[in-house]
Design goal:
The complex is a heterodimer. Chain A folds into three domains: 100 residues, no CATH class; 250 residues, Aldolase class I (TIM Barrel, Alpha-Beta Barrel), CATH 3.20.20; 97 residues, no CATH class. In chain A, the strands form two sheets. In chain A, strands 4, 5, 6, 7, 8, 9, 10, 11, 12, 13, 14 and 15 form a twelve-stranded mixed β-sheet that branches. In chain A, strands 1-2-3 form a three-stranded antiparallel β-sheet. Chain A is of the alpha/beta class. Chain A is built from 17 helices and 15 strands. Chain B is flat, with a radius of gyration of 14 Å. The mean pLDDT of chain B is 79. Chain B contains one helix and one strand, in the order βα. Chain B is 12% helix and 6% strand. The chains are: A alpha/beta, B little secondary structure. At the A-B interface, strand 3, helix 4, strand 6, strand 7 and strand 9 of A face strand 1 of B.
Amino acid sequence: MRRFLLHQYKSNGLNIVLDVNSGAVHLVDDVTYDLLPLYETTVLGERSEKTKEELSEKLREENTAETKEAIIEQLSRTYPKADIEEALEEVKQLEQAGVLFTRDEYEDLHIAHTEPVVKALCLHIAHDCNLACRYCFAEEGEYHGRRALMSLETGKAALDFLIANSGNRRNLEVDFFGGEPLMNWFVVKEIVAYGRALEAGHDKHFRFTLTTNGVLLDEEMIAFANQLLPSGEPQIANVVLSLDGREEVHDRMRPFRGGQGSYELVAPKLLRFAKERGQKNYYVRGTFTRHNLDFAEDVLHLADLGFTQISVEPVVADTNEDYAIQTEDLPRAFAEYDALAAEMIRRRKEGKGFCFFHFMIDLEGGPCVAKRLRGCGAGTEYLAVTPWGDLYPCHQFAGEDGLKIGTVTEGITNTKLREIFSKVNVYSKPACKNCFAKFYCSGGCGANSYHFSETAGDTLAHKLNQPYEIGCELQRKRVECAIMIKAMESSEL
Amino acid sequence: MKHVKTLNTQKLQQTVKKGGCGECQTSCQSACKTSCTVGNQSCENKEQKAVK
């Protein structure tokens, strides 16, 4: 039976209702808030798909009238009867309008990647790093392998592979990632030049992005990345600047190889980078760990420094690590997200607002259903390229045994692997079935699922379809906060 | 309505018909790299936007 899914919660004095399948968000009063669960269990609970079709109109009306009386009786101890009846009528209207108790009509959509299209590459331009971040999944840039820099030849071959495999997709994305990509800056610039030269002849548009720790950042690099194309877009369309927040927090986890902190060197340079690109098309990106569960302070520190586009994410680490976030840390993290959301609302009212990546939500648009079901596209439309030109399903899988999917010169050689990844979506993950956040995270990061799957010997497909629960809990909280912020903005109108 | 205020005017169901062009940004190229944040990506399909 096609199911509806409603999520009700109270936040910042608001009664919020998310109708998951339509994406509709409703602010409701107390009577409606208390009425909805009763409506769900009495009216809708008795009206299965079968009975809905088989019952005559008359019988259905009688059935609804009966349950309506039951709801009124139950709530009349708390609310006036007229209010309950009005609320019931409004709920019914919203249901009929397809914005409340909406059934899931998406499962049968053809969501598998039928055509082998690649549209985004993560180029591991340097498997080497000048920092020794304690939480680095790339093992200080080396990714289970040796230190290496990508050659220009391999970089060009990667772009050729992307164009050849991108079908009719026009916008192609190439991220310069590492290790630390500025350690191979000459090759970065040459790959950009090569890409620009290919665009017109193939009717493609490259969006280059750069993820950097800022250690080597200089004026020439900033000018190159920020220079505007005729379209008005910067040469490097988006930059991700790694800075964790407060100096002591950053330095604890992001030291140089010799142990000394890197904040003092990189913070001013990263800020200059952001300011010189007009405070647009970038994120200053931090990681919080168990050592700074008061991470709202780090987000606010970044805002106080002058950054306006901020992303601070929970660390993803082996549970044995002292800095790994544990299940018992979740209440503290939730409270911190609430505090951050409240402070962001306060600052916005004072004209000092900033953007927090994980509280961004577009209630009027945002991605289509197809995108929300498929997720990140790892292993299909998104691939990672090692310095040697090997292809992996994503940057987090680089160097993993058995997960090489091809090479930039030979193309996709492990089609079976691609097929497994192409079948991963919201509906392939049983744990997502009743989760209200599923259309905001597409069932979460596949690499996290894979690395946290506790059952040894499971198949790859099984591992990819077991969401990383701590990540899920935090994601749900962020979605709640993001909606609450929108609701507060709306209630101020 | 007296008891309910709906914040959005668009429905997810409306994106079924024209969606899926794939021109939008890959989520991991934006800022995350360790999570999956499709919900805050922008739609780049002009036809889809027109539907909305």
